[in-house]
Amino acid sequence: MRKILLVCLTAVLSLACADLKAQERTITGHVTSQEDGSELPGVNVVIKGTTNGSVTDQNGAYALVVPTGSEVLVFTFIGLKSQEVNIGGKSVVDVSMELDVSQLTEVVITAGGLHSRSRELGSANTIVNPETLTSGKAVNVAAGLQGKVAGFQINATSSGVNPEYRLILRGQRSMTGNNQALVVLDNVIVPNSVLSNMNMNDVESINVLQGAGAAALYGSQASNGAVIITTKKGKAGKTDITLSHNVQLQQVAFFPKIQKKFGSGGSAYGTDPAGYGEFNYLENQSYGAPFDGSNRPLGPPLEDGSQLYTTYNYKPGHNEFWKIGVTNQTDFSLSSGDDKSTFYISGQYVAVTGTTPGDKFERGNIRINGSRKLGDKLLVTYVTSYAPNKYDITSGTGAIYTNMLNMPSNVDITQFKDWRNNKFANPNGFYNPWYLNPYFTADTQRQLDKNAYLTGNLELTFTPIPGLDIIARQGISNRSYTQKQSIEGFKYSDYAKQTDQSSKTDIPATVGETSNQSTQLVSDLIVQYDKKLGDFNVNVVGGGQLIENNGRYLAVATSGLVVDNLYNLGNGTGNPFYVENTFKQRLVGAYGKVTLGFKDYLFLTGTARNDWDSRLNPDNRSFFYPSAEASVLLSEAVPSIKESRIISYLKVRGGISKTGLVNLGGLTQFPGSFSDYGAYYLKPTFSSNLNGFPYGSLAGYSVDGTLVSDVLQPELTHGYEFGFDMNFFDDRINTNVTYFHTRTDNQTVTTLLSNSTGFGALLTNIGETQAKGLELTLNVTPVRTDNWTVSVGGNYTYLENRVTEISDILPQLSLGTSGNAISAAVAGQSFPVIMGLDYERDPAGHVIVDKVTGQPTSTSSNVILGNATPKNRIGANAVVSFKGLRFSVLFEYRGGYSVFNGMGPEMDWSGTGYRTAQYDRRSFVFPNSVYLSDDGNTYVENKTVTIANGNGNNGFWSDGINRNTTSNYVTSGDFVKLREISLSWEIPASFITKTKVLKGAQISLQGRNLFLWMAKDNYYTDPEYSSTGSTGNGTGLNDIGQTPPTRNFGGTLSLRF
Amino acid sequence: MKNRVSIILTCVVIAVLGSSCNDYLDINTNPNKATAVQAQLVLPQALAATANSLDVYNTYGSQIGGYAANAGGYGGFNETVSYAYTPNNYAGNWPLAYDNLEDYQYIINQTADDELNIHFHAVAKIMRVYNFQLLVDAYNDVPFTEALQGVAFLTPAYDNAASIYASLATELDDAMTEIVTGNGLVGKNDIDNYDILFGGDMDSWMKLANTIKLRLLIRGNGKVTFANTSFNSIGFLTNDALINPSYTRDNSRQNPAWDTWGFAYTGSAGNKAWIPTTFILTFYDGTKLNDPGRGSAMYFDFPNTGTNQLGYESTGIPKSPDGSFWYPGSERDGKVAGDTTGVLKGPDAGYPMFTAAESYFLQAEASVVGLATPATGTTQELFEAGIEASFKYLYQLPDGSQAGDYEEDAADYIASNNNKLVQFNLALSQAEQIEAIITQKYIALNMVNSHEGWNEYRRTGYPSVFGRGAKTTFASIASQSSRPDFLPSRILYPTSEIQYNSANVPEGVGSFSSLIFWAK
Fold first, then answer.
1. pLDDT at A809
2. Which of A404, B76, B192, B272 gives the lowest tally of CB atoms within 10 Å of its CB?
């Protein structure tokens, strides 16, 4: 019946049309996706040159009445290439639309989760697609971004089962505050640690907003730039299942260079006839006699009279302590959708065994994303992810590594593995009384961490009339953390305590518990209105935002456990250590954004935002910051360029911005680095639990060491940037060039003070920093045929990061310390610089030595020893693909900076340091030295006056003059890394289709950080490391507690169903 | 969700209208720590911190001043035995004293115009002087007038050491005046419940102030112009000033010296890297003097106590027993050890901040050099009172009772040592008298306040040392010192000053060439 009705109706309509045939006709058709053949709803169909048009329905069908004379229909849809179709005499026009991969109309998700077309953006941004991100199969998203984005410096600041990364865009702005880029996951601001706990395969795209342009919509937290991560949603009409497994091996690489000629002993034990330090079976300083291969005792005799012997020669056994780590990663995902809803679920399980014996790490991840249309005016989108992880590791890795670097190289440590049964490996009999057997440490100092990250976002988009969107959004990110630390006790035998090894003292059993809950709630209300008025297009956004951060931290520890192997707080003795902290911070933001487009090639955008922040005094808590940017598409606006066969795309852009940022607090001193959100910094505090207080009913308080001010203001960053994007030869050559400049004043600074002020630190607003630089990206695709694609590309960043001003009273600020070196902000210098002691030098730079002793002297105050921020960085990549085979490689170079190697002084102290044997442990003339002549005016080149004791353990190399002279350990930080290399093979469809189940399969091999080439003078460790961790601004220093860097390699099989 | 949307709307509307959401944002009150406390509550903590700081100064004094040498089984002493100090050596002395001073300064500032708390003001002042003297005696010129003023002076200038001494003496006079004023004040707040040094006995505080002033005047004699060289008639300390907040065998609640050298509350041994010097034992074991009473009261295994000469690192050097040679008890199980005589006594013993012995020896020296003090006895009486007070302190058990007859043993000691270092009437010249007084003081301060023994050595040159032998000098055999006694003259300003106060920290300070202003 219905069908009949329809036929009738059509007939009537046809008749009506027939009548009008002289003037107009009806065109019908279907629009489908070229990618998968699905029908596309919502596609705009417009008669070219008019505003008349229609929209495809849920089945992708449209019907349009076209007047005579109209020849061309234009089909447009966000994310797809627009098509113009000549209708000729046709009455049915079916169109298949293809994905738009060129920049021209690329739609990006930008600040606030709003969609913009790339052409509208006036500031630099870089899109990283999933293929580029995951090619090296890094487990961590931050690692996957390394070297891939101009202006983005990502440092792995440590190693371990789940390393930390520091994310810095366009240099550092804040001297002591947070400089890391904001991470936004599906419109929810999340802590950076989420990057190391999310499933990289869930990533749909990453948009790195290099400049502060995002700040208006994300608020002050985005003034350091933002990394906007969007996860996958399902696609309509298509169900996909993928399953993959990846295995990676992790191998410790790049050990520091050590001397291999001398073993235990030193000149404190006397010197042998040849002038070398005497051998000693106990000594851990390697300043003894040269190796001679003879059998020598190792450690003193044990209580039963037995004695361990070892050959006195270099053994590589040290390095064999570290195991090959294995990472197993299994991924599953399912995506589906229909015309009303989409659905994506994924799961991941990662299991890691570390390079330190006994270290284990596990991580799971579940994600459910989806959307549902309710009627045609309301869209509900939800994303949720739950990611628990578990570390079962030793808390003694730093101590273990220190121990290994100290160990004489004739000791083969692997023989001491079975410490519970081997009497020479047992603490009672272990040869070295000052350092624990590393296997014992790894076994008895344990740490069990459990984290659970929950992130989610619920978004309602209401579209009452076309062009008007009202978006309400509630995001949450929560981390729940518990840690249990334990130390197994050990009671030494009386023999061990009273012989040569008397420094052995009982180890009390200890247990500690820590827990942390931190939650961020972000609520947004956004109104967006889009309107086309002739040649003009106006887009207006207004919004309000509430951010609330809550953190709660509890820790209790107790020692002297009574019952063996019972690691419970109730099993302790004495006054336990305890701390409780709660933090809360809120922010209210109101913002607006107006984008004006003219003829779709000229765009002007203005933003404004005001924040009210609970952390500041009511008089200062409100701050306002505006920005403006413009972009013009010359390749469309200028006819000569438009017609050019060489230039396929040219956009010129620029922007200016001011952003405010409340830079207080951040990560606290607690283990596990919890944020205090900068709350409660305006008032001085008092401690009640120092020096054993309270004693019964007797309480006692102490003034805390930080001087505070309640008139703190936000930091203000003024920035501008300009640049262009230019493509040649049908987009075969893409270039982006951006110059940027930022100036940050009113810095909120916590600086260390002379204790004579009565305080140790000061929190105040002073100083100004500046960063300027150039970002270049170039991609060339010389070959692009059906079978072959070859592309090479790279990015280059030049960065000049300076401190322009601090204050008269505090000409320098210490930002980080390692040994005798500080990383400091110094007015007029690069930001930061490494400072420390140097040798006294003559005006020509030669070291001045004493005329009699040949000994140099240290400067009496710190001098600048190098700049810690790389001036030049290059990421270079190449991709070659042939049919289903794809090979890619990525190198990263950083240069033009220095690094202080904190392990250097320790290695020289212990005599394993390579430097210590450079004069064969003989008396030597200090190189390039001079001494003051008798007249007291001129310096004479020193060729004869030698340093008498060229040994250590009471001698030059272990003495303070060598070890405390910081400049001895400041080296170039330049390096080239083979960051990623991968080879993948997409198994041909002809094989796959036979299975009838599989839609696709891929096998790939990857390697990460396989090779590291460092500057010649740096034989210590990876210059990316930082002793201030991922959050400290005092970069350029590393320390001995950081385990050696690793290289990763492995393979992946992935299947699509 | 709905609720938050309405908050946003409300806030945005209000914000746009020019007001702000103060209620929503007024949440910056610290729930974790006190942001203001009564000055009284700071006093007990500050006094306990002084004891902790003194333990570190005692360690420094014992190593540099001849009381302790490196033990067997350890190595890598480097600058500690070569004396080629860098700014890192003993760098902790500086912040400990200044951090502690800030607490006293807080009490002083908070009670400045608060007459009812005048006694808190006065005792904080006395402790301020005490700590500043510690600093001057270790570092010579230090920040003083611009120190402890927070934001007002972020890089405090250094004051001349002698002028600091003059100011400190005046501050003590002021404090004593305040105590007297307070004594007559009705309704004032007593310090009794907060005073873990004298339990609120203001006469003892007066005596302490007087005695500190005596030490300032004696060290500054002839080098400092003091405004007022007279003393309060109340006299000087006759009892040991011991800080004790109720120390007990518990985590961070032990007597600091016991915790450092004896045993941790868990029973693990303390620092075993140091043992007595051969030099100091000669004053007990009969080599120079015979002192079996104090020797066995303070040393384990006396007279066979293991010793070493500083800087001698080789196999065969005696090892430290668990709990150290300074714990004389035979009960060596760390969980029950303690309750003995000597310098460590036990986990619950009070910490000596000024001993009666030092007070008497200062008075004796004042008497010799003719410094006008309230009449307390002849020089010899004061000298012998000093020896007796030392016996009394060392014989004392943690609970304050005596483990032996200190009066008899002190008398025996004096009678049996026919030596001008013991029998005062044998010391004829003024130089000999000073040598006797300072040497006895050096013995009395052994591991009690070792830094004061080191200060007095540098000021007077006593006890006499010569040569390089283990029994004749306490100088390290690894000494790199260019001085005739092969000893250093001082430690250097700490790294933190070089880093954070570089414009003011004195240049050209050397550990062999620079002297504290009162030093020889």
1. 63
2. B192
C-alpha R_g of chain B: 25
Report residues of chain A scoring pLDDT below 50: 1-22, 103-105, 668-671
B 157-196 residues with CB < 8 A to A: 193, 196
Hey, what are A359's tokens? Answer: 């270290």
Closest in B21, B154, B502 to A757, CB measured: B154
A609 phi and psi angles, rounded to 5 deg: -150, 145
In angstroms, what CA-CA distances link A777 with A734, A794, A894?
A: 8, 6, 16
Strand segments, DSSP code E, in A322-377 are 325-337, 341-353, 360-374
Please write the tens of the pLDDT for every residue from A899-935.
999 999 999 999 999 999 999 999 999 999 999 998 8
| 849-888 of A, contacting B, C-beta below 8 A | 858, 860-862
pLDDT at B377 over 60: yes
Residue range(s) in chain B whose domain bears CATH number 1.25.40.390:
39-251+343-500
Q: What are phi and psi of B511, to 5 degrees?
A: -80, -5
Q: Can you name the CATH fold of B39-251+343-500?
A: 1.25.40
Distance from CA of A432 to the nearest CA of B (A): 10
Query: CB-based contact (8 Å) between B466 and chain A?
Result: no
Dihedrals phi, psi of B193, to nearest 5 degrees: -75, -5
On chain B, the residues whose CB falls within 8 A of the CB of A618 are 20, 22, 25-26
pTM over 0.90: no
Residue A845 in contact with residue A941, Cβ under 8 Å?
no
Question: Could you tell me if B30 lies within 8 Å of chain A, comparing CB atoms?
Answer: yes
What is d(CA B139, CA A155) in angstroms, rounded to the nearest whole number? 42
CA distance A264 to A397: 24
Over residues B305-317, the mean pLDDT reads 89
How far from A593 is each of A139, A606, A629, CA to CA, in Å? 37, 6, 11
Instruction: Say if residue A694 is preceded by a cis peptide, omega within 30 of 0.
Output: yes
- Please tell me if residue B331 touches chain A, with a CB cutoff of 8 Å: no
Residue A7's Cβ-count burial label (10 Å; 0-12, 13-18, 19+) is: exposed
Banded model confidence at residue B14, pLDDT cuts 50, 70, 90:
low
Question: Phi first, then psi: what are they for A914, rounded to 5°?
Answer: -60, -35
**Cα dist from A693 to A874, B49, B261, whole Å:** 55, 10, 21
- Quote the DSSP letter at residue B31: S
| B269: DSSP letter | B
Query: Are A809 and B154 inside 8 Å of each other by CB?
Result: yes
> pLDDT at position A8, please?
39
Cα torsion through A891, A894, A895, A900, rounded to 10: -130
Q: Which pLDDT tens digit goes with each residue over B99-151?
A: 999 999 999 999 999 999 999 999 999 999 999 999 999 999 999 999 999 88
A19 burial class (0-12, 13-18, 19+ CB within 10 angstroms)? exposed
Asked if B243 and B38 touch (Cβ cutoff 8 Å), the reply is no
State whether A756 and B148 contact (CB < 8 Å).
yes
Tokens describing residue B178: 């305040």
Kindly report the nearest CA distance between residue A492 and chain B, in angstroms: 10
Q: What is the pLDDT of residue B89?
A: 93
Cβ–Cβ below 8 Å for A580 and B32: yes
Interchain CB contact of B24 with A (< 8 Å): yes
Q: By the CB < 8 Å criterion, does A280 face chain B?
A: yes
Which residue does chain B place closest to A613, by CA atoms?
Answer: B25
Cβ-defined contact of B268 to A610 (cutoff 8 Å):
no
Peptide bond between residue B303 and the one before it cis (omega within 30 degrees of 0): yes
Q: Is pLDDT above 60 for B20?
A: no
